[in-house]
Design a protein that fits this description.
The protein is built from 10 helices and 24 strands. It is an alpha+beta fold.
Length: about 500
């Protein structure tokens, strides 16, 4: 029995230790108003707290009883006491039957310090076990530190040099694309139209990329990155550009691109590439956008397709401070989403995914509900207040055959209890969790017991070693078997 008590106390000790170690980094959870109010209204001089679990006619509870400067925790099953623990300013007591075990906090603190010292000692021993001829000399350590400093300085210098190389190359590349050289601009009453000069743009791109391909500093940078990541070397990039140069420039010369911006917020864009002569098919991208500055709203329609055929893709979007909607059509499928916004955050919305004129996914949600349907079933959940004042969370799951099951969780207050009640469609019984105010229970002062067994540091150490042996056996079964086989031979040699 004593060993069981010590094991329980060790578990409690480790739990408190971990809780203390991890408590600080986390932000405290926001208190529930109903729970906070319930606790504040409880007079601990006349009432005790009880955490209760009720299933059918079975009731398990944990009672918290405050007496003077002691906190008692009593676990019961159907009113029968199973365990009793008591904490006072100096020690922790735990009773099982007529036996009482005591663990002083100072003993626990000393035990923890001993664990730390033992770990440090083992680390020191491991370091000291390294042969002297394998340890680096002071001169070697200084040389290694100096080499590391040189490497770090060289890396920082190389990083700055690479930044200058990239920046210089980018500026040289951009200088080839002067707007007055590659754009035609026409101003009419209330509108401005920009058209791309395809031949001039192709020439500018050719000169810009040719300049990059002749940049030796950039080449060395790319080669270093290729050695690290396995990407293409500068020579491979140069070869690819030489092979694709003329075909790329020829395609660019077929571009027809025009943008028109009007004073009323209307912006149209037309882009076409691929048609070298009349009658050839080309890829086209068109966009039609309206921007309303007064309402802080915008809407756009974008289409992608081939000349002479229906669009391959269309994309529509509407954005306002309180609303967002978009829809994308691709061949025989579409996705549509809409959201209502409040203070910049999504408050409710709908998502519809359709393939081949069949709904693949339908989702709608709001502050107090969520509904989702798919080809293999559906899920719906809701939060509401019932006629009897309960806060009800309901979840219903339906499979493809139409068979459904549900889970209902009710939160409510009943007399001197806050209750969480769970019910499923598969059972007539409910599971209840309660936080209750109960009449004060009669408890014994464990610190005044006639027979108290104190748990010492040596006892804790012995139990901890036993636990560690269970987790980390000294020898694996195979190793133990090999040792047993070798034992006779070793005994014979010893006899000789």
């Amino acid at each position: 029995m004593m060993k069981k008590l010590v094991s329980c106390l060790l578990a409690v000790m480790m739990l408190f230790t971990m809780a203390g170690a991890f408590a600080d980094p986390f932000v405290p959870l926001e208190r529930n108003n109903a729970l906070h109010k319930f606790l504040n209204e409880t007079d601990l001089k006349t009432k005790d707290f009880a955490l209760q679990l009720e299933l059918g006619n079975q009731v398990a509870d944990l009672v918290f009883h405050v007496e003077g400067n002691s906190l008692h925790m009593v676990t019961r099953m159907n009113g029968i006491v199973l365990r009793h623990a008591q904490m006072n300013p100096t020690a922790l007591y735990m009773a099982s039957g007529s036996e009482v075990a005591m663990l002083r906090y100072e003993t626990l603190a000393a035990f923890q310090q001993d664990l730390i010292k033992e770990a440090e000692a083992q680390l020191t021993q491991a370091i000291q076990s390294i042969p002297a001829n394998q340890l680096p000399t002071e001169a070697e350590l200084r040389a290694a530190a100096a080499q590391q400093a040189v490497l770090e300085t060289a890396a920082a210098t190389q990083e700055r040099t690479d930044a200058v190389t990239i920046g210089t190359a980018a500026i040289a590349f951009a200088e080839h694309f002067r707007p007055e050289s590659i754009l035609d601009v026409k101003e009419n009453d209330g509108s401005v139209e920009f058209s791309l000069r395809s031949d001039a743009y192709a020439d500018a791109l050719a000169n810009a990329i040719d300049g990059l391909m002749a940049n030796e500093s950039l080449g060395r940078l790319i080669d270093r990155q290729a050695a690290k990541t396995g990407s293409k070397t500068f020579a491979e990039i140069q070869k690819s550009w030489a092979e694709d140069r003329e075909a790329t420039l020829q395609a660019i010369r077929t571009i027809q691109s025009t943008d028109k911006i009007e004073e009323d917020g209307h912006w149209t864009s037309s882009f076409q590439i691929g048609a070298e002569k009349e009658g050839d098919q080309a890829l086209i991208c068109n966009a039609d956008t309206w921007v309303n500055e007064e309402l802080n709203a915008a809407e756009m329609t974008f289409t992608l397709g081939i000349t002479g055929e229906d669009p391959v893709m269309t994309y529509d979007i509407v954005v306002t401070p309180n609303y967002f909607w978009e829809k994308m059509n691709v061949e025989q499928a579409y996705t549509e989403m809409s959201f209502d916004l409040e203070d910049g955050l999504i408050n409710s919305g709908k998502i519809d995914i359709n393939r081949n004129n069949m709904d693949a996914v339908q989702l709608s949600f709001g502050p107090d509900y969520l509904n989702m349907r798919g080809p293999k079933g559906g899920i719906s959940s809701s939060i509401r207040e019932t006629w009897t004042g309960k806060t009800r969370y309901e979840l219903v799951v339906e499979n493809a055959e139409g068979v459904s099951s549900s889970l209902i969780i009710d939160f409510y207050e009943d007399d001197d209890s806050l209750i969480c009640e769970m019910k499923t469609s598969e059972s007539d019984q409910s599971l209840k969790y309660r936080i209750s105010r109960i009449d004060r229970v009669e408890v014994n002062d464990l610190s005044a017991s006639e027979k108290i067994t104190e748990i010492t540091g040596e006892t804790l150490k012995t139990e901890m070693e036993a636990l560690l042996k269970l987790v980390f056996p000294a020898k694996a079964p195979e190793a133990a078997a090999e040792t047993a086989e070798a034992a006779p031979e070793e005994a014979a040699e010893t006899g000789k």
